[in-house]
Amino acid sequence: MPTPERIVALTGGIGSGKSTVADLFVQRGACLIDTDAIAHSISEAGGRAIGPIRERFGESVLAADGAMDRARMRARVFADSDARRDLEAILHPMIRDEADQALAADAACRAPYVMLAVPLLFETMGYRGRFMRALVVDCTIELQCRRVTRRSGLAFSEVNRIIAAQISRPLRLQLADDVVSNSGDTVDLVPQVARLDAIYRSMETRHEYR
């Protein structure tokens, strides 16, 4: 498994463009481990989280094919903080376990560095000690809302509620070691990623997570 000195944690608010930035790092040779993709995988039909989810929440949060109905679950947990904590208690340890397995795989060990994408990196604090630097993809809240509503069809009020449940933009930026600004065009990301790629390839001293 790569040491924390070779792992960068990638995070940012919903709609900030984390996936776009991650893809640019992959193009430069980084190994990507996407915890959001892991979350989708374990909550699909037959996924390892479905049994505990069914036991805690019942059939009402499952789709016809047996997968977790994300829209129903989102409505449930935003209306009930206890339900949200229970869901996180089910999902987060499983996601971290899957991420650790991916970190131990050949692809991660052979890459110059690993990009560990964790949308709720600062909210959960569950990845402390696993990485050297925290990279935040940042954009304005207004742009976040426009991107998410265009992508998912959610109402602005729903998107604002999701944003409000995440760590604030100023605090996220304060906790960041590095920032990629994604308020412009994709082409504007390229020099930012190139500069950070050079830094990440030369990481040597361990960074203590704040």
Overall description:
With 210 residues, the protein is an alpha/beta fold. 52% of the residues lie in helices and 11% in strands. It has eleven helices and five strands. The two termini are 23 Å apart.
Features:
210 residues, alpha/beta, 5-stranded parallel beta sheet, 5 strands, disordered C terminus
| Number of beta strands | 5
- By helix and strand content, what is the structural category? alpha/beta
Major β-sheet profile:
5 strands, parallel
Tell me what portion of residues adopts beta-strand conformation: 5-15%
> Can you list the strand order of the major beta sheet?
2-3-1-4-5
Sequence of secondary-structure elements? EHEHHHHHEHEHHHEH
What overall form do the CA principal axes indicate? Answer: globular
Mean pLDDT, nearest integer?
92
How far apart lie the N and C ends? 23 Å
Helical coverage, percent range? 40-55%
Cα-based radius of gyration, to the nearest Å: 17 Å
Give start-end ranges of low-pLDDT stretches: 205-210
Counted by DSSP, the helix tally is 11
